[in-house]
Design brief:
Layout: H1 2-25, H2 29-54, H3 58-89, H4 101-106
Helix pairs in contact: 1-2, 2-3
Length: 108
Amino acid sequence: MTVVMALCLLAGSGATLSAALGMLRLPDLLTRMHAAVKPQAVGLILILVAVAINFPAASVITTILLVALLQLVTVPVAAHMVGRAAYRTGRFHQERLHVDELAEDLGD
């Protein structure tokens, strides 16, 4: 179990590190948002799995499940709202979009 815990910690840390590097290296808000949301959520869940393996008490596992569930529910919604706000205020690079479905829906 120690090996599984160590692998989960390493994979989770790597995913979180890739999210941080994506935030630093990617050019605009929409790509940074994509890089921040997906690997960060996966990294956190892997780290929570490692904590659950290390502390197998029912109260700890219940708390971890609650944190993971809230993370999986709130992060995509928050990213969506940030993306729509950026789109509506024009804080993104229009030339980087290959398809702009929202402009078609809004009638712009």
